[in-house]
Protein 1
Amino acid sequence: MLWIQVIICIALVIAVSSKLSQSADMVAEKSGLGRNWVGAILLAGSTSLPELATGVSAVNYLDAPDLAAGGIFGSCLFNLMILAILDIITGGGPLFQQAQVSHGLAAGLGSLMLGVAATGIFLADRGLDPVLGWVGIPSIVLIVVYLVSARLIAKFERRRRSEVLEQESEAYEYEHVKPRKAYLTFALCSLAIIVLGVWLAWLGDEVVKETGLEESFIGSLLLAITTSLPEVAAGIAAVRLDAVDLAISNVFGSNIFNMAILGIYDIVYIKGDFFAKVAQVHIFTAVIAMMMTSLAIVGLIYRATRPSRLYLTYDVLGLIVLYLGGMYIVYLG
């Protein structure tokens, strides 16, 4: 019965994520905010909220800050791996060649937030973690940077779109759809993906317990993948809609939102110093995520073509090597 529920839930996540990506594309057109902002903030927030719900539960009811933080850092790594997955399934040339260079803004802000989080763990381990009440200053910085990031990306996207419109007219794909319907559809799909995401995370936890993997690296990896499935499904759906920018901005935006979630975990954890309860190994995970983000930025700027003997570009191949190598080292640790 458990496995039947898993299959049903995954099928529903895929179906709803497809509709969510399409409605997000509609919102981007109707609102004038653009795919970059809608993908990085709205779509990323919708697909990442299940992680917030499951993490808050782990922090409050299980008293497991390290488990919650591990899920966030693991999700950041897997989100960047999604870029490689999307590159593999795109047929019309390398993924980064089809994307706007402006994604580097969201990617850079995400890397900055990863650095802030890693610094918070490092300082807490040495008893130097500055706090305001029970909340660590790094957590406050993460939330503030997230809010600033949303504003910066919105302003940058508006400026970029105005420059494009001066040179050429913009093609509208959803003129037949009324704005109210687009917004309502996105809201309903977001609510559905949140519920399904929480259900999927719970099912993943039950599978891990039933198979006896709860204490293993494989168990943790399985849980990280299940919580990131909405991002994978939404990204694939966006690529199939020929909305590559929406898919890529969702990945970088999800990492930005994940770091803000880490700050929220600290706020709701009133039993002590949150960062002091987080293992040092997550600093390594954050560094790998920053390296992968930097490599993605290089790919966006350099726009490499695929070598004749390799299906993957070197930047995407580097993402895969960094992810697998990083997870292997974490496994050994």
Note: The CA atoms of residues 23 and 186 lie 5 Å apart.
Protein 2
Amino acid sequence: MGSLDAKPAETQELGIKDQAQLWNIIYGFGDSLVLRCAVEIGIADIIKNNNGSITLAQLASQLPIPIVNSDYLYRILRYLVHMNILEQETCNGGVDKVYSLKPVGTLLLRDAERSMVPIILGLTQKDFMVPWQFMKEGLESESTTAFEIGMGMTVWKFLEGHPDQSQLFNEEMAGETRLLTKTLFEDCGDAFQGLDSLVDVGGGNGTLIMAIYEAFPHIKCTLYDLPHVIANSHEYPNIEKVSGDMFKSVPSAQAVLLKMILHDWTDEECVNILKKCKEAIPKETGKVIIVDVALEEDSTHELTKTRLLLDIDMLVTTGGRERTVDDWENLLKRAGFRSHKIRPIRSIQSVIEAFP
């Protein structure tokens, strides 16, 4: 006879599932930092260079570490298997474990076309994780971000005064750009057809504008960013580099490109930027090409959580936001654009073309 206090099996199971859900959320930072460790020691590249599979002993002997604790390394590999980054098989009668990369693991290769290594290293660097500890304090202010509270200055002042961190940030942006570029051209290449000139506003080290020039060599391309960014940007043939402040002016061109720029800023600041862009393009044939998130709050799309997390990142770091389709329409109307169209692509971003 069962106890009167016994809970139905489904209720017990639900409780365990709830706990597991919260444990996974609590330790979510662990996934990021295990991944960072794997990237820092180059596990994916070593496996690739070892004909695609490797034993624990072989990997330990090839790591850029003088003395490797094999038990510690095994436990990290075990978790990477659990994360579906690595695949594990046994050989020699089950004595040795052999590790290989799952498809997602190829994104951890430093020389991969769509490598996510710069993004991983950029987003998990220590200084950029500190502000997340000040989210509660950030809620108490209408004008100060958690980054400012935690670091004592805006993210832009921080990057200007810390060249190494600025370089890492620009490498992260370049990595994100390489992840995007092929999809952008395949899904929305017609947005660049017929243009004779284009300026990439806030283009960082020039990764995207160079890719655009290589794909559309008839376009006169200009890279535009703050003086300290331009000073440290790559030298590209056929790309003009101009330094300045997008809040004050934008170089003239038939089209202006804003890739993941507007999500950094408040609505008022975005209207200001967009007005400067509108002044820089011809009224009849010009356009502003915005590559940014078009958030669908209730979507079941596999990237919805990432987009919502990116919105929290903007909340914490810059004071900006990710915007819905209605938000974009309101913003562009306020900036004086007569029409626009939004096209989703196979990426975290969409392409928004705004016409003066």
Note: The longest strand covers residues 86-91.
Protein 3
Amino acid sequence: MTSNETRTATAQTDVSANNNQYKITKSDLIKSSLNTGALGMEFSWTYYKQMNLAFCLMVAGMLKKIYHGRPDDYAAALRRHAAFFNITVQFAPFVGGIAMAMEERVARGEIEPDSVNDVKAALMGPLSGIGDAIFLTTIRVVAAAVGISLCQAGNAAGPIVFLLIYNIPAFWLRVWGVQKGYSMGVGFLEKASENGLMQKVIAAIGIVGAMVIGGMTKDMFWATIPVQIGQAVEGQDPTTIQTVLDSIMPGIVGMSAFWIYYRLLAKKINPMWLILGTMVLGVIGAYFGFLA
């Protein structure tokens, strides 16, 4: 082999080694699913953008690898992921894995950066509906029932059993989910983008997400309008505006409030002003009796 051929082969080897050095590995994915950001999704929760800071912390190490030697692109990626994010915490690594697979394609100029947040937003609603039903409504209740029964029997292992029943599937999903999300992002999303399936998937997920949000809006709104209409009849509950509205459509007050907030947010009203306004309206309404 000539000296030129030797130098070329050496250069190619160095480039390959350098690329492998900045390639996201299985270890990177697992570490991200168990780091401070992933485990602290609700510790830095804010009413403004909810889990966005924790999500950035969860994926920051992988973003540094993807955009090594490109500090401006790394900063832009962090700003991109600082958008609103909220999900059942055990599913956050799964979404992070998909997002990192997409970021690799963004770094190569294959897809638009905005598509990453589009996919994240489309996944939040449906996965939260599934995750809350599995972990909050089912596993947590079962774990609490077993733990409490052991405690009532005088068994000191009750709290430990409760934590094990709840956390073993939770941590398994974190570790498995981030790897599955990354592999799906590399394979499934690539094919879906080529044949137009991605748009259909996002549309379908969006429909399911709207249904979940609609149900949550009704169940998580805790205000009524107790203003009495007419004279109370002996032996019967007085007729109020709330009972009339419930007879028309249960949850109409919550849906109306949701629509008002949606319109105000569409007009770029700062969410902090909406939060403060809601607090003031609640205090005034409770004081004068037209809200309860």
Note: DSSP finds 13 helices and no strands in the chain.
Protein 4
Amino acid sequence: MKKKWQAHLFSLGLGMAFLILWEFMAKQLSPLVLPTPVVVFKKLIQGFRLGYFYPHILTTLLEVVLGLGLGGFLGLFVGIMIGESEFLKRVFSSYIIISQAIPKIAIAPLFMLWFGYGILAKVVITALICFFPLMEATATAIQQVSKDQLSLFKVIKATRLQTLWHLKLPSGLPTIMQGVRVAVINSLVGAIVGEFIGAHRGLGALIIASEGKMDTALMFAVLVILVVIGLAMYGLINAIENKLWYRRSQKHENKK
């Protein structure tokens, strides 16, 4: 417990040191290049007080949720299919790698051309970015199940679906959740990339607008909002994972 508090205090100290360094560097440079933390904080307060940020935050969050939901579902489904079938893995692996080797920002304009400048294009970009990490994690988790456990399930004549649901997915949960955490962070990146290319609303569009107005403080304020959203989403996934582990441990205790 003592080491845990020491780690938290050290982390807090690093944050304070960063703010002090930021303040010092900002005073050496023009406000157009680097505004001070106080100026950025005032911009944040003003934006929330006037309700300026809320429509942009809601738009970005909607794109993130829809893109993450679509990409996560497809990633989990395809990961299970590939993990369960060596044939499918050999057939589709090359194409999946090719789809991920292409920089998303390079094909984002094509998505805008195909799907328009509405929310659909941003959702597709976000889903594509979220798909691969969860698919890879799921396939890896399913293929790394203990052979002894698989043999036990064969002895009790469990079906393939029962083996997947009661053995492979639960035992592979830590690896799958690693893919979920990466997908969650990537979903925010995907939404912002889509908004960079073409959007009138959203935090990415707000960054582009602040650049055009030479409002560096607003740009930093938006970055702070993105950091907070990213941390909140990451924390939520950790909480869900802890809940799943707690329920699993409770089931094992009840069986005993």
Note: The mean pLDDT is 83.
